[in-house]
Amino acid sequence: MHSRKPLAVLALVLLGSGGAMAALNLRPSAADMAQAADKFLAALPAEQRAQASMAFDDPARLDWHFIPKDKRKGLQVKEMNADQRKRAHALLETGVSKLGYQKATTIMELEKILRELEKGVPGKPLRDPERYYFTVFGEPGSASRWGWSVEGHHLSLNFVVEAGKLASITPAFYGANPAEVQSSVGVGPAKGTRVLRHEEEQAFKLLAALTAEQRGKAVIAEKAPNDLRGAGEPQAPNTPPEGLPASEMTDEQIAILRSLITAYTDNMLADEGAARQAEIREAGIEKLHFAWSGADKPGIGHYYRVQGPTFLIEFCNTQPDSAGNPANHIHAVWRQMAGDFGIER
């Protein structure tokens, strides 16, 4: 398995001068991905391999979503034996940091809580921690392009490798229901678990640090939207940035904004996260915008957006969890403004 740099390096890269970034472009993780994808596919008999493999240009590659669905592309974990599952998870580990992997697998385990809370409730979707699908697009290690994805309820991670380098890691979606496990039901993650704690807390911290005048610019709506924009769409919304520009923030506020962005890049491989941070710095920190909608405290619907020339973060926590606790159900995504799925706009 590939080595990982300490997560603290990511914050230092954003603060640093960027002179050492060229070395990061080597992206050795692409070779690890190809090897892991080959091992995963090699463990599958013909019928399963046909489910887990698709052409790179198959339109289904762009068909992503985080809602419960009756059918998804790929081979689901439930249909894999122990060795196949091990190889599938080894592939997942090549695409994200250790922290990102922990979040992904905890999100899967939250399905146990939903299943327990919703059992016997008519009309509820199927909740299953093994209902996550792995798909490989094209030929791993191809000199041209190939890719892979893992997707299920509240998780959609998508990767493209081109000319031996990792070319795209978006859309990268993580969600959580419950956002905070508020009671023990005997299964799933323990009470107090918050998969996306920092993604939420750092945003509240930044909002609280703003002056009344700054809030007037940052808050774009009194009520939070019901969900993210562009969910399931192959490209991120290409609208002008809204909210408060970083050029009007103090150094202390910008430091919190950086911490908020790092909460997302920490989920990525260390060199990938560092590369995204470098892109942000090179495009100009002052061009970032922070926009907020909804309540300024937990437990009431809230939403935020961080947008710069190179990326878009959207976060929405408006829905109740399955136990009825309000605003305890998070959707959060990182997208590239130049284009997701390795497709330029």
What structural keywords apply?
345 residues, alpha+beta, 13-stranded mixed sheet, 9 helices, 33% helix
Q: How does this model look, in words?
A:
By secondary structure, the chain is an alpha+beta fold. It has one domain. It is 33% helix and 19% strand. The protein is built from 9 helices and 13 strands. Strands 1, 2, 3, 4, 5, 6, 7, 8, 9, 10, 11, 12 and 13 form a 13-stranded mixed beta sheet that branches. A hairpin with a 7-residue loop joins strand 10 and strand 11. Helix 2 runs antiparallel to helix 4, helix 6 packs antiparallel against helix 8 and helix 8 packs antiparallel against helix 9. The radius of gyration is 20 Å and the shape is globular. The two termini are 33 Å apart. The N terminus is likely disordered.
Number of helices: 9
Chain oligomer state: single chain
Global geometry? globular
Classify the helix fraction into a percent range: 25-40%
**Biggest sheet: strands, sense, closure?**
13 strands, mixed
Number of E-state strands: 13
Uncertain runs with pLDDT below 50, 5 residues or more? Answer: 1-28
What is the total number of structural domains? 1
How much is the radius of gyration in Å? 20 Å
Structural class: alpha+beta
